[in-house]
Structure formats: C-alpha cells, structure tokens
Specification:
Helix content is 41%, strand content 17%. It is an alpha/beta fold and 537 residues long. The protein folds into 3 domains: 174 residues, Thiamin diphosphate (ThDP)-binding fold, Pyr/PP domains (Rossmann fold); 156 residues, TPP-binding domain (Rossmann fold); 180 residues, Rossmann fold. Strands 3-2-4-5-7-6 form a 6-stranded parallel sheet. A 6-stranded parallel sheet has the order 15-14-16-17-19-18, sandwiched between helices. 53% of the residues are buried. Thiamine diphosphate binds next to α16, α18 and α20.
Length: 537
C-alpha cells in the first residue's frame, strides 16, 4: 500500500522495514531533513560519530559482529570522501552495509553546489557493489530495498543510495517493502558427485576455508566434513575460528606465518577451497600452489579460475553446498586418509615452543589467558596483527576480525566500537599500533559519549613498525618511519577514558582480567622497543 510522506520519512520507514535498529551518522546541511525525521521514529537508536571514516569502520564492525546490515548516513562531498577508505575496506572483505548519502538539490548538481565533488556517483560507484541516485520520493523505498538485497546477495558488500536534498523534503507516494529473503544457490548434483568422488579417493586431501564460510555460518558442516574424511583444514585470517584453532585437524597459523598450509599443499593431491576468493592476501602473496584436482565452493563464479584452474566449480552458498556434499559422501564407506592427527598436534606444539621466548608470544599469551572464548577481537593491519593471527587461538567464528586485503590503518578501534553497539554484553577488544590509533582516535569521544566500553591495547613502538621492517628487508636502511607519538595515557584520560601504561606481559595479564569490569572504555598502552628482536616472529 502506498502512503503520502516526505522523502526523509520514506527512507527511514523503509530502513525500519528492513529490520534496522541503529543508525550511525554525522549530520550536515544536506541531511538535515533526515535527522529531523529521525525524531519521529524513537525506536531507532542514533549514534553520532566524529569522523566519517570512523563511522564507516564502526558500521563494518557492527555488520560483522551482528550478521546484519549496518546503515551509515553521511553528507555529500566531505562526508562521502571521508568514508571512502572504510567503504573500500568493506568491499574487499565482503562486509555488507547500506550507506545513505545525500546530495545537493537536483537542479544544482554539476553547477558548483555547496559540498560538491566533481562526480559523486562515479567516486562511490568505483568502490561499492551497487549505487543509485534517486530522482523522486517514489523511487526511494524501491532503491533502499534493492540496496539491502544487493548488500547480502552473492558475495556481500557495501551498497549506497544517494538522495538529493530536495527529494528528502518533497512529499510523494511511497510503498514500503517487507524485509529481504536471501537467495540460496545450489550447484547441480553431477558436480557434487564428482567433488565427492575426488575427496573420497584422495590420498592426502586438504580443506582451505575462507571468510565465505563465516558469512554462510557453515562451521558445523565444515567440521563434520573434515572429521568424517579426516581432512586437515586451513582457515584464512578472515575465517579464524570457523574450525576451532585447537581442533586436531586445524593446520592454520599455530605460531607461524601461514601455519602448515604450505607443507600440506606440497603433498596434497586434492584441495577443497570453501568460501575463499584465493586473492592476494590469502594465496597469491604466499605463492601457494594448488594441485590439479582443485574443488572450489564459492557464492560467485567470479572468484573461480582466476589464478588457479578449478577442476570442479561448485557455485552456491557454502552451507548449502557442504550439506549436499556431505550427504553424498556419507553414502560411501569411510576412506582412510594419511595425515594423522598426531602429526598436526605435534608440529603445532613444536612451532609454539620455538616462539615462547619472544616478547610477541608472551604478550599474546597474556591476552589469550585473560580473555574468554566469547571475547570478540578486532585487530589493526599493523606488525602486531601478525602476532595476533599466529598466536591467538579462537574457538568460534566472528570472534576475531581483521582487515585483510584493503588494510586501511585505523580500522580496528572504530570497528570494535561498532561491534559493541551490536553486542552490549560480550567482552570486546581492539588491538592496534600507535600509528593506527592516531588514524581513528577521534572516536574515543564517541566511545566515552555512548559508554561503548571496550578494551583497546595500543602497542606503541613510536612509529610505523611494519613499514620499517619492510624498508630494512628491502633496502637495509629506513626513512620516515620513526615517529614520536603522544602520551596515550594522558590523551585517553583527556577524553574521559580509563588509561593504563603497562610494560610487561605479566602486568598486561594482571590488569586485563580486571579491565572488563571498569564501566568506561579502557585504553592500555604498551611501549615497545622497536629494536628488540623479540618483536620479530
Ligand atoms: C591508511 C593507511 N595508510 C598507510 C598504510 C601503510 N601502512 C601499513 S602498516 C603501517 C604502519 C603501522 O604503524 P602502527 O599502527 O604504529 O603499527 P606497527 O606496524 O608499528 O605495529 C603503515 C603506515 C596503511 N595500511 N593504511
Ligand atoms: Mg607503531
């Protein structure tokens, strides 16, 4: 049924119909009517952030943690440009969100309007899945509904709707659509049978699981398949926890760069890739080699046959396809695969033993001992991220988040705040470097304002440590990477947060177990000596 209402009211009613309960935003001249209309919908919680980059990363954390779609609202021009890095990040890591972008009135676009950028649609379109400018009130609800469907469909990602200022204030007839039903693709039974035969007859099969498994929530099916056929399983950094890190068949990380996957792939005769695009940060950069008998399950065929030839391509939702595959495999007798659990557990233990003397392991061990299985960790793309990925053990998916391919600094702190909005009760932690924290420190004001009580650990090596190491490796000298940082304790206190400076792993453990009980955001600064070889792993 159609109702007469303003563009702003139509937009908000459609957003509510999609099941949204929180709006993340920064106000400005071009979205004033939207802000005003929000007062008519008290069921929506409005979170005003301090920078557009921060609010878009918050939206990223919100969507990841809640398995729903966050809705950031930004103004045209500087609001749009400020959110670009975080939008691009969401695109690369397949994080859904629907951004509402405003614009000058239709008749002023292209004429040097206030806040105008040369070609706003082209700017946004180049980094999101789908984008539309609406021209009248009647188009708004259709466009928003489509944006929600599109953000979830196939490979999830950000979408955006542009609503010009005059369209927000105009009145028109709008029809509200009910919430979306996700599509579920299934591959043909012939391909499933072929994949099942390859796995059953394999001598040394390996499973390689990516973020698609987390999106599809297929942890049970993955574990069932791995255990039924006794297949060692690697989980990428974005899929950490989909098979518990401590599971006897998990060959990921375990204290070393890329874990045991390289060794296992060298011997593997069949590999099943589930929900991974096998892109730069996952496979190419590490020059991973896959055998000819490669089976790939992915929600989109775009990810198939790019760098690796796929023998059996199963296009569909990972949970659905794995269920089909399992039912076929279980009709056959159990084969006997050659990798034994003892080898995996033993090799992992040995790798960790070799690292125990490093400060890197000791700090991560202190964190590991002070957190619970439910703690949700967000890690920034810094040197320390390597420590977190290699050493922290997670038992459930969605309890470890990092940015993997776009890798914009400053992601983890606002993303963790976004997760806190979605989950008021789970313990949430951000791990970040001094450089990264300075990219998003303004959101400390948001954390204090809304009492988003997370624990943030800043590893402060007074500079861009990750880049310094790359410079040394490549050129044997360094430039522009030793950077004095502020006193983070005084900085955090000035915002009204609780702040501590701790100088040893023991101190970190001791304070961390108490930090969850403070009723304020907690910032812990850990000074590091950049020249300490114990920081290298
Ligand atoms: C927005 C952005 N700018 C630049 C970079 C390049 N970069 C990657 S790591 C890094 C240094 C990070 O420093 P810090 O956060 O202090 O962590 P550290 O490596 O010192 O542990 C830089 C500048 C980036 N990833 N993102
Ligand atoms: Mg640093």
């Amino acid at each position: 049924m159609k109702k007469m209402m303003s563009g702003a009211h139509a937009a908000i009613e459609q957003i509510i119909a999609e099941g949204v309960t929180d709006i993340l935003s920064i106000p400005g001249e071009h979205n004033l009517p939207l802000y005003d209309a929000l007062l008519d919908y008290p069921q929506l919680r409005l979170i005003t952030a301090r920078t557009e980059q921060g609010l878009t990363y918050m939206s990223n954390g919100y969507s990841r943690a809640s398995h729903t779609i966050a809705v950031p609202i930004v103004i045209s021009g500087p609001g749009v440009t400020g959110s670009l890095s975080a939008l691009a990040d969401a695109y690369q890591d397949s994080v859904p969100m629907v951004m509402i972008v405003t614009q000058a009135p239709l008749n002023q676009i292209g004429k040097g309007a206030f806040h105008e950028i040369k070609d706003q649609p082209a700017t946004i379109r180049s980094i999101v899945k789908w984008y539309k400018r609406v021209q009248c009130v009647e188009e708004i609800t259709d466009a928003i509904h489509h944006a929600f469907l599109n953000a979830f469909e196939n490979r999830p990602g950000p979408t955006a709707i542009e609503i010009p200022l005059d369209v927000l204030t105009q009145k028109g007839h709008a029809a509200i659509h009910s919430s979306p039903t996700p599509l579920c693709l299934k591959p043909d039974i012939y391909s499933i049978e072929k994949a099942a035969q390859l796995l059953i007859n394999a001598k040394k099969p390996v499973i390689y699981a990516g973020r698609g498994t987390v999106i599809s929530a297929c942890g049970d099916e993955l574990k069932d398949l791995a255990e039924w056929l006794e297949i060692p399983c690697f989980t990428t950094a974005l899929a950490k926890g989909i098979l518990p890190d401590t599971h006897y068949l998990n060959i990921s990380w375990g204290g070393c760069k890329y874990g045991m996957i390289q060794t296992f792939l060298q011997q593997a005769d069949v590999v099943l890739v589930v929900g991974s695009s096998l892109d730069d940060s996952d496979a190419r950069r590490f020059s991973l080699r896959f055998p000819d008998k490669l089976i790939q399950i992915d929600i989109t065929s775009e990810n198939m046959n790019r760098d690796y030839n796929v023998m059996v391509a199963l296009t569909g939702d990972a949970k659905t396809v794995l269920t089909q595959l399992l039912s076929v495999i279980k009709q056959h007798p159990k084969p006997n695969h050659l990798f034994t659990q003892n080898t995996i557990v033993h090799d992992k233990k040995k790798a960790i033993e070799e690292k125990k003397s490093t400060l890197a392991w000791q700090y991560m061990n202190a964190i590991q001992n002070a957190i619970s299985e439910q703690t949700i960790i967000f890690s920034d793309p810094t040197w320390v991220n390597g420590w977190a990925v290699y050493f922290l053990e997670r038992q459930f998916p969605n309890t470890f988040h990092c940015t993997r391919n776009f890798c914009g600094l400053g992601f983890s702190f606002p993303a963790a705040l976004g997760a806190r909005l979605a989950y008021p009760n789970s313990p949430i932690m951000a791990i970040i470097g001094d450089g990264g924290f300075l990219f998003s420190q303004a959101e400390l004001a948001t954390a204090v304002h809304y009492q988003l009580n997370i624990v943030t650990i800043i590893f402060n090596d007074q500079g861009f440590g990750a880049i310094k190491r790359r410079q040394i490796n490549a050129f044997k000298r360094t430039v522009g990477v030793d950077l004095p940082s502020p006193d983070f304790v005084r900085l955090a206190e000035a915002y009204g947060a609780m702040a501590l400076r701790l100088t040893s792993p023991d101190q970190l453990y001791e304070h961390l177990i108490k930090a969850w009980n403070y009723n304020r955001p907690v910032i812990i600064e850990i000074p590091l000596d950049n020249n300490d070889s114990g920081l290298n792993i």
